[in-house]
Amino acid sequence: MKTITYQITDPRGIHARPAGQLVKLVSGFKSSCQMGKEGALIDGKRLLAVMKLAIQQGEELVLQFEGEDEEQACAAAEQFLKENL
């Protein structure tokens, strides 16, 4: 299992556009993806679930990947977060 913890820097938090892009990115991998905040994890491949997290600027987003391509999925997600959120 690979885990990323990332503090959101975008003043708007995770809003519709980057949430959709992130879900699309992680859905392209075979590994499962769980994401959330404050211990509450959801399926990171479901856009509505990600939107319901309502993660704001300054909060920490946790992503957990598990599966055959978890290394690649983790690296791609981490790069996306640094570039977009």
Number of strands: 4
Strand order of the largest sheet: 1-4-2-3
Percent strand equals 25-35%
The structural class is alpha+beta
Low-confidence stretches: none
Give me the number of helical elements. 3
Helix content: 25-40%
- Mean pLDDT, to the nearest integer, reads 92
Biggest sheet, in brief?
4 strands, antiparallel
For the termini, the CA-CA separation is 23 Å
Q: Rg from C-alpha positions?
A: 11 Å
Backbone shape: globular
What order do the helices and strands follow?
EHEEHEH
Task: Give the topology, please.
Layout: E1 2-7, H1 16-27, E2 32-37, E3 40-43, H2 47-52, E4 60-66, H3 70-84
Helix pairs in contact: 1-3
Notable characteristics:
85 residues; alpha+beta; 4 strands; 39% helix
What is the compact description of this entry?
The protein is 39% helix and 27% strand. The chain has 85 residues and is α+β, with helices and mostly antiparallel strands.
